[in-house]
Amino acid sequence: MNYEMEDTQNSAPGSLPPAQAAKLGAPRRAADAQSTTKRLQTELMQLMTSSAPGISAFPSADGNLLSWTATIEGPDDTPYAGLTFKLSFAFPSNYPYAPPTVLFKTPIYHPNVDFSGRICLDILKDKWTAAYNIQTVLLSLQSLLGEPNNASPLNGEAAELWDKDAVEFKRKVLSRHRDIDDE
Amino acid sequence: MSIEKLNLRKKRVFDSVFGAPALSLPTPVATPVGGFTTPGQAFGGPAVFTHDRRQAPLSDVRTARGARDIVEVPLSESDHVRHQVRWDRAWHTVTHALVPPDIPSRPEQIEEWNPELVEPNEAFLEAIRDVLDPKTRLPYATHTEDIILWHTNHVRYHFLQQVLPYIQGLSDDGDAAELLFKVIKLLRAAHRPVVCRYVFAILAVPNVAGSQTPTVPVESIASEQSRAGLINLVELLKEVGLAGEGFQITFAEVMNEAMTEYVNRSCKGIWSLEDVKAQEQYNNQVRQGRKSDTGTGMVLPRTALHSPASQTVTNLCKWIENGYARLAVEVFHTLGDSRAFPWRQVEMWKEMGIGHLGSLRTNELFNIVVNWPHSSAALDDLRTAITTPQRRLHLTEVFSQTMGEHLLHPGASTLQILQTYISMISSFHALDHSKVLLDRVAYPLQLYLCSREDTVRIIITGLLADTEDAEGNPIAPGGDKLVELALLLNKGEGQVEQKSSDDELDWDDADWMPDPIDAGPGYKRSKNADILGTLIGVLGSQEVFIKEFQNIIGEHLLKSEGPFEKEIKVLDLLKIRFGEAPLQSCEVMLKDIQDSGRLNSAIRRYKKLDPSEEEINIAHAKLDMRDIRDDGDMVPEGMLKPSLHAKILSRLYWPQLHHESYRVPDEIGHLQKLYENGFETLKASRKLTWLHALGQATVELELTDRTITEEVHTWQAAVIWSFQSEDQGDVNVHRSVGELVERLEMDEALVRSALRFWANKLILQEDERDVFSVLETLNQEDRARSNAQAAASAAAAAGDGLDDAAALVADEGITAEKGQMYWQFIRGMLKNSSSQMLLGQIAMMLKMLIAEGFPYSNEELQGFLGRKVSEGELEFVGGKYRLKK
């Protein structure tokens, strides 16, 4: 466990385990479709062997590796406790050199998420580096649920309520939340 | 007479079906030429002729002339009649002259039979002019016929009616040459110089017969006699005028056929140098001291000079120069073609001959390859012959096709295919250093081999195979392992050329050749055949190869003691191929084993597990006493108490190890404890975990009437151990399967397999179903069986071992460790992608997404999912699986 946490967090290439280093290091060319899928496969394997609590992700059922679905469980001690949220990941073909497009599929009432599920999170925009991966994104999103960034809200009302009226906020969260059952 | 009638009747029947030829039969002498009057013509007009009719027209030229004179006289008669009459007259003259004489019915007469040839006289010439060109000469004759057609037809008729039966009669006796002469004589007799080219229609027959003669030198029994015969024939033919264009064509055809035949007969299946020599010797005997041939270099055509010529090609060229060309020249001279015979022609013949040889070898190539290395001469031939890109292309096409038919089908074992591939690499390398040809033919083979699951395993076991058997004799290739590979490895093949910089040319390479003209864009030159490199590099991906190697090497390392030279060698080879990093774990494995050797002795010394002096002495004394054939590998300590040697493995680096556990016998358990202690004191922060199911045990069984020493698996040893009677009372111990499973805490399948093993060794017997006891004494019958089985069971035991190992794996299905990971995947899948999925969908996703592959079948997955359902983690609703809420 220790060992695996290490390679997700110390994201400098030098500290990657030899197998992965070889995989990433071998094709030094610009990201082509081959290396993208390979990277995603590796990430999937990582996620499966070292699952962090409360998050999970998997490629979509049609087997397209560039489109994933993820699940986040609302952290305890937040208004989202006990709720689960589905997200969609769409990876560009030059991933990991460009961030994936992440959307909340489950309606969520959150200061940094708008009503169509778009997320305002710096690491998904300009702060993205190839060292991030699905797991780190999901963990960031999970922590975003507990600590919204109210300085740049997409949902102004939510940002206001978060600070002023926790009970009302919680009510809004619950009323907005709807379990989506796919197919 | 009756025959004639019969023929007539036949002809009538034939005509009724096919229509009579629109040609009249030869006009009989007696027929009045002007017997018919044209309509509207008064009778008696041409009556002037009547007195002429009785005379033979041939004998009386004047008559014809006279007739003309007379015909010209009556002015009242129309030109039509005049011309018609003159035509009829001329027709009669010509046809009479051209009628072939009957052949005497008795064959003896034919020799002196010399029918009088009609000397063409003026009248005849005049007549034939009329007949041949009636349009201009006799424009008013209404009834004319084509004399040429008539003659052709008639000669044919004559031939069929008279000549052919005669020839058929002859063909029963006498040899071909004699027959030929007779035929020629006959033909000469039947011949008419006037229209000789029409007679060529007949020539089909003498040519068929004639083809016998030129093939005589083909069999290289070109004795002067038959040569003279042939020349004689040609002379005769020339004399009879048959040696025209048609004959020359025929002769050319026959010569061409002769060359093909020669190549096919003398070169087919002769692939090795010895064969060639033998053949040559034979030829020399046949030639019987013909003057020795000219130098080799001179014999070859220029195109074949750039490469060292093979023996067969040289022989072929000699034959062409000395036999073939000579014959042709002689025949040409006989025919009177006095033009200087161009030398270039001979060169061309040689090239043609080599071409024939090339196509023969191309067709044989697959067998040649299979026979490598006993077919190098054939490859030399081919190298000489394959000079143009077209031929190269043809060669690869033909070879691919043959290979597809003969090799790439389910009936061929992977081993066989690999062996062929090895021969292919070597022989194609001998054929063409550039590898272009090989690349072209090897691709389908590689593709096919990739579809075989056992390819990689066979290659690796081949690499690791013993090249010498226990007695030190070299093992011949062709067994159940690819020993060839080990031999190559030992020879130091597989050393990769380090300078593989394909951009830079080696300026010092004096033998540099440009890339072959048909090289593909990705062409890389390489000097050696590099069989090992090709096999390792092309078949299967690096991961697959390394994984397989790890498994096999793991097995080897655990099973045997020793310096593991081969393993190290192969590891080095793979390291050159794949780099150090991917093979790190193999390196660690090897190091583990080497270290554990040292560690083992250290621990044993430290823990005083080694036998003391006196113990050794006692053991030796015992040994002497019982006069056991001392194999040398019996540890004296083992005579007194169980001894334990351990191999210490680094868990993370070894491939899937079997984790089955069972209760080891107490004595062993005790030893393990001691050992463990020793290890932990030596390596403070590390712990030993015992893998009971792996490893070897040397078991010595003392039975009432015999002592048996066996090298067995640990679990087999554990089973037999449990038959040891606790109290020394000599009661036979009975154990049931269930009892053993319980006692040893061992898997039932494993217990059964061990029991079967011992029962095969005639140490246990099955008293009743599932209850076994020790067979302390063998009765006579058993003893015989034992002896008979000793050899057989040795072989069977090997097989058994494999079965057991297989059982070990198969019983596991999806292993626990892997299962955990798969379960994560399935959970992630059902949680995120789709809340409920069909079995097939899940299997497909797993296969697609797990990088190292998902080797299990749908049934195994179903079993696995079934377990999860029963554990309450999954639900199975409406044919789909979903997570339990």
From TrEMBL, chain A:
Annotated EC: 2.3.2.23
Q: Which UniProt keywords apply?
A: ATP-binding, Nucleotide-binding, Transferase, Ubl conjugation pathway
Residue span of region Disordered? 1-30
Q: Which GO terms describe its molecular function?
A: ATP binding; ubiquitin conjugating enzyme activity
Q: Which Pfam families match?
A: UQ_con (PF00179)
What is this protein's record name? Answer: Ubiquitin-conjugating enzyme E2 2
> What family is this protein classified in?
Belongs to the ubiquitin-conjugating enzyme family.
Which SMART domains did the record assign? UBCc
KW Transferase (keyword) present: yes
Instruction: Return the broad EC class.
Output: transferase
Q: Which PROSITE patterns does its entry note?
A: UBC_1, UBC_2
Active site: which residues? 120 (glycyl thioester intermediate)
Ranges for domain UBC core come to 35-182
From TrEMBL, chain B:
Pfam families hit by this protein: ANAPC2, Cullin_AB, TPR_ANAPC2
What PROSITE patterns does its record include? CULLIN_2 (PS50069)
On whether Cell cycle is a keyword of this UniProt record, the answer is yes
Gene3D superfamilies membership: Cullin, Chain C, Domain 2 (3.30.230.130), Winged helix-like DNA-binding domain superfamily/Winged helix DNA-binding domain (1.10.10.10)
Alphabetically ordered keywords of this record: Cell cycle, Cell division, Mitosis, Ubl conjugation pathway
Tell me the classification of the organism that encodes this protein. Answer: Eukaryota, Fungi, Dikarya, Ascomycota, Pezizomycotina
What protein am I looking at?
Answer: Anaphase-promoting complex subunit 2
- SMART domains for the chain: APC2, CULLIN
What are this entry's molecular-function GO terms? Answer: ubiquitin protein ligase binding
Can you tell which superkingdom this protein's organism belongs to? Eukaryota
Where the record annotates domain Cullin family profile, the positions are 534-759
Q: What are the record's GO terms for cellular component?
A: anaphase-promoting complex
